[in-house]
Amino acid sequence: MPNFEEHISAFLDYLAKNKRMSPHTVKAYQIDLDQFNAYLQSLGNPSLAQLKSLHIRSWMADLMSNDIKARSINRKLSSLRAYFKYLRERSYLDQNPMAKVVAPKMPKHLVKDIPARDLHDLFERFPWGEVEHGERDRLLLLLLYTTGMRLSELIGLKWTDVDFARNSLRVLGKRNKVRILPLHPELSDLLKLYHSCSGGRYSVFERESGEPFYPVLVYRLVNHYLRLFSHASKTSPHVLRHSFATHMLNNGANLMAIKDLLGHANLAATQVYTKNSFEKLKKIHNLHPRK
After folding, report:
1. Residue 86 catalytic?
2. Is 100 a catalytic residue?
3. How many domains, the chain?
4. 83 counts as catalytic
5. pLDDT digits over 48-64, tens only?
6. Shared-domain flag, residues 174 and 257
7. Residue 153's closest CA among 144, 164, 165, 141?
8. Is 250 left (phi over 0), alpha (psi -120 to 50) or beta?
C-alpha cells in the first residue's frame, strides 16, 4: 500500500511547473510535508488508505505542545490540504483526512501604520540632498509608501517596467500576477531624474556591483529613515505597505480599489484595514463627554 511520502516529489514538481510557485514557496511546502511524514513514521508509518483525521489532530496537538504558533500550524495544515487535494484529483486517495480537522484560531492583530504626519515630516524635513544616496533612498521610500508595492516587487522593478508616458509601473506580484500601478506626477518626475543618472542600469535599484538590492538591505534603509521621524514599534517595508492602504482608506478610497492596488487575491485580505480604521474611530468617539 502506498504511504504518505510516495507522491511528495511529484507534488512539489507540480507546484513548481504547473502552479508556477517560487522555489522559496515550494521549499516551504516540502518542509511542512516532510515534518508530517516524520510524525507518521513515529506512529508506524500508516498507509494513505489508513490515514485519518485523528492522525492530523494528534500532530496538531504535538505541535502545540512544542509552542508552535497558530499561524505556523495553519500554514502546515494548508500544505497538507493542498497535498491531499492533489492526491484525490489523481485517485491516489479515496477519503480526505482533512475533512474533520478544525484549524486553530488565529490571534487577531490589528495593522499598525506609520502616522501620516510622521511620513510627511520625513519626506519634507529630512535633508535628502546632503547625505550619500539620499535622493535614491527617498525615491525608494516614496515608491513603497505611495504605491503599496511589496518588498519583492520593489527589488524586482526594472526600468522597462516604468511607463513615463502613462505615469505607471508594471509590477510582478505573487504567483507571477502582473498589475499596473499609477504614479503620482511628483514621483514620476523623481523617477525620471533618477533614471537620467542611472547610467543604463537594468534594475531600478542596483548596488555598485550591478546586482539588484536584496531584502535585508532595503529593510535596513527603511528602518533607518523611519526611526528618525517615528516612534512606531515596527518600521519595515511591509509597514509602509500597511500605511499606504490605511491612509488611502482613511481618506475615502474604495476598498475594492485598494485591493487591486495591493494585488490581494481576495477582499478578506484587504478588510483588515477597515478594522484598523474602526479602532481609531472608537478612540476618537471615546472623547465624547457622554460616552
Report:
1. no
2. no
3. 2
4. no
5. 889 999 999 999 999 99
6. yes
7. 144
8. alpha
